[in-house]
Amino acid sequence: MIRLPALSPLEHAAFVAAGLLVYVITTRARQQRRHPYAALAWVLGIAAFPYLGVPIFLLFGTRKTVRPSTPRQPVPAGPWAALAPAWATRLLAALGVPEARPQAALRFHADGAQALAELRALIASAQRTLDVCTYVLGDDEVGAAVAGELAARARAGVRVRLLVDSIGSLRSRRSHDALLRAAGVRVRRFMPALRNPRRGRTNLRNHRKLVVADGLRLWGGGRNLANEYFIGRVGEAPWIDLSFSAEGALATQAMALFEGDWRIALGLRHASRIPYAERAMRHEQVLHAYQPAHASAAALAATPPAPANGAAPPADAALAQWVPSGPDFHEDVLHALLISAAFHAQRRLLLATPYFVPDEGLIESLLLAAKRGVQVTLLLPRHSNHRLADWARGRAVRELVDNGVDVRLLPAMLHAKAVVVDDVLALCGSANLDSRSLFINYEAMAAFYSRAEIDWLAGWITRTAADGEPASARPPGLARDVLEGVVGAIAFQL
């Protein structure tokens, strides 16, 4: 029988003190801000269960991989700057995000079959490079179809790279690896659970979804590459979701972000010594210098020319920028943008998300917007595929409803992530309105500033919300209230 060493009360107290000192040094020395509820949870966990809490914190506690060195970008001042709200573009420039650029084309996909057709067409169009990042690659019809087409492009001489989150694709059991690797596809798993902790934290998951062909064409949004996001599982309808296709600078910015993720997946702790905005600019310069062999590819690289002689830019120009957030950025970029958007909204704030577990700052900004008379609409599924997240959202939802927010619960599973602010800004991409997405995961959203894209997303949210039922502000029973509080205490990890 194994006998565990017995510690005296003084030795136990010393271990607890050492554990708390490790927490303080790790968070303060690395200058990593932590929200109060998360800090309290870690401190209580280490104090109450030090022999378990300390190693768990060392494995999962760090949420940033960079020090505060993100360089500010110049304030946008070109001819296109007038089409975007200054409060948004100035903030994103200060946080190191490349400026918004006009796109050659933009298309949204609300229908799963259309989204899959657009995805397969983009993959088939790749002539030189094809970069794919996804949280889930399903062991199903859609996963097999995508894997088969990636293999076909690799056999045709295209450099194909596939980055899959190791935790998100656990269920697929590497079912496509043999086909992909035999065809020459380069496959990497993002931060496997069993890895050297010095190379990254297992808790930091890559939730970004993007496919970039030749650095010129982008397919992105909220859909993972599995049946439920496109055609539905057997006997079930597909989830309600959004994706989009773009041609132009948005693809260049997404490709620059992928390069950093690929480097991290290799085992390097940092995305690059070159800031993300500078990487995006260099990629664009290389692509402009490259002369494609096909005239059609050259046409896709073109973006609307800048107005000459001080003329105003066309109001219908598809202006957009790729807005990433995560451990590879010192600031919580998307969280900062959402808070700022809530305070600047004057007329409407429309939001759609599958999981709503906000921190105090985001919930307070939404409440203040509603109290100022802004029309705030929040679209949620009545029952999501993560029941703990449904429990954790209860208190926040009731508080919003009690203050005049129109919270709509859909009978079907909603997986789309979208935000519309007045008529000046819309967001669509991979980030949920929860603390894990906004503070822990690697995420990316596209920011749209043109009226056509804003109106499309606003119309989609409004039409979809009509199918939902208003959420209730009625207080729950004692047992549910206590359970919601317990789940909410660990909500930042959900």
What descriptors fit this protein?
single chain, 494 residues, alpha/beta, Endonuclease, Chain A, 3 domains, 15-stranded mixed β-sheet, two-stranded parallel ribbon, 17 helices, 40% helix, 18% strand, globular
Structure description:
With 494 residues, this protein is of the alpha/beta class. The protein has 3 domains: 10-60; 81-301, Endonuclease, Chain A (2-Layer Sandwich); 326-493, Endonuclease, Chain A. It is 40% helix and 18% strand. The protein is built from 17 helices and 17 strands. It has helices at 9-29, 36-48, 50-60, 86-94, 112-125, 141-155, 177-183, 249-265, 276-289, 295-301, 333-344, 360-371, 387-392, 394-402, 435-439, 451-465, 478-489, and strands at 101-109, 129-134, 159-165, 186-190, 210-213, 217-221, 243-248, 319-325, 348-352, 356-357, 375-381, 406-410, 418-421, 425-429, 433-434, 443-448, 469-470. Strands 4-3-2-5-6-7-1-8-16-14-13-9-11-12-17 form a 15-stranded mixed sheet, with helices on both faces. It has a two-stranded parallel ribbon with strand order 10-15. A hairpin with a 3-residue loop joins strand 5 and strand 6. Helix 2 (36-48) crosses helix 3 (50-60), helix 5 runs parallel beside helix 6 and helix 8 (249-265) packs across helix 9. The chain is globular. It starts with 8 loop residues before the first helix and ends in a 5-residue tail after the last helix.
